[in-house]
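Suppose a colleague, Dr. K., hands you the sequence of a protein chain of 78 amino acids and asks what its three-dimensional shape might be. Before reaching for any lab equipment, you can write down a predicted structure in token form. Begin with the sequence itself:
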Amino acid sequence: MSVRCQVTGKKPGYGNQVSHSHHRTRRRWLPNVQRKRYWLPSEGRWIRLRVSTKGMKTIEKLGIEAVVAAMRARGERV
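The predicted structure, expressed as tokens, is then:
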């Protein structure tokens, strides 16, 4: 499974690791993605999301119902 946030869509960033001698090698920066359960009161069930810490703050601010509605509007399966 890819390292991608289901709420914000964050994915790995790519670039160069530059050493002290200026030797460059490719590397990637992974988002801080956690697996978390949320209770959906309207449906009376738990859902499990792969969400970044920024996505968790978004859920706290807007509420899980609004975030799930936006995800479904984008066509994602929840």
